[in-house]
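Batch manifest line 224
LIGAND: iron/sulfur cluster
JOB: complex structure
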Amino acid sequence: MIREVDLDEISDGKRYHANDLVKADCNDCINCNECCTGMGNSIILDPYDIALLSSGLELSFEHLMNGKIELNLVDGLILPNLVMDSEREQCLFLNQQGRCSIHAFRPGICRLFPLGRVYENNSFQYFLQTKECRKTNRTKIKVKKWIGLPNFRDYESFVLHWHDFLLEVQRIIREHAEAAYVKNLNLYLLKLFYQTRYEADSDFFSQFDQRLSMAKDYVGSLSE
Ligand code: SF4
Ligand code: SF4
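JOB STATUS: finished
ARTIFACT:
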């Protein structure tokens, strides 16, 4: 999602890289689950999130669509997000003890919080949101340890390429108002990146790169 915010207002004014220490560790979020409450449809899922969720819950995309995720329009693109429990306005994966029941394979947005990313010059850096997490006694931790995913370089490369690709597709959608064009593009991308299962015993990032290359060819052919 493209969001224009004044970083100086919402952060500590610093930028961080994967190996930098940042005061983000809220020590297991003890007695707090504010981030898992009232999030609406804002926990948008990227292809890696869906691959992890599918494998962790042993559910296909279609089965996840049966109450755990839903599709919404984000700046013209159809993307999946986590479903909230409408009565409690809490994430469905929050258990009775107020803990995340899918902690090991929770989405990237959940891993990142209270950090954010700022994209500039074909790269990105992290920033610390200072007004979001209610814990005041957070301790320092390395950014990559906080996010806690293996193959971190590959993950960061995936994040950047996915972000850039979405921006490009959103630009194309803005410039092509024809409903049929936008619909076909959305259906193709949904199928390619989300509905078609990733092989669990083979490297996700290589599979993603192959699909990204196919998608760029497809998008290019539509624009001709
Ligand atoms: S997936 Fe886990 S961390 Fe993310 S909102 Fe749901 S309960 Fe919270
Ligand atoms: S507000 Fe902070 S302590 Fe509370 S759940 Fe979110 S990250 Fe954890």
